[in-house]
Amino acid sequence: MLARVMWTQRDDPHWFGGRIPGPVLSVETVTVAAGPDGKASYAHQEYRPAAASPAAPLEGPALQARIDAFLAEKASPLP
Question: What is the pLDDT of residues 50-72, one digit of tens each?
Fold first, then answer.
């Protein structure tokens, strides 16, 4: 399972000029099944304010394109 979390930023109350993560906006997950077929599933959850318009659900080629783009990204290197 891979996940992407998007959040807003807010001022750091302990460090002038610093920015820290604020409220979560959305969470996307791609889960790839074990086995030779490796079927992938996609889920997207929005946490935006009620005033914002909800994102349309992805279907068909748009869904597969989103999964492919998600899986093509390089992972962040860890020291």
Answer: 656 666 677 788 888 888 888 88
Total-model pTM: 0.67
Structural domain containing residue 40:
1-6+25-48+57-79
Q: Which two tokens stand for residue 20?
A: 């820290």
Neighbours of 30 (CB within 10 A): 19
Residue 19 in domain = no
Q: Note whether residue 44 is domain-resident.
A: yes
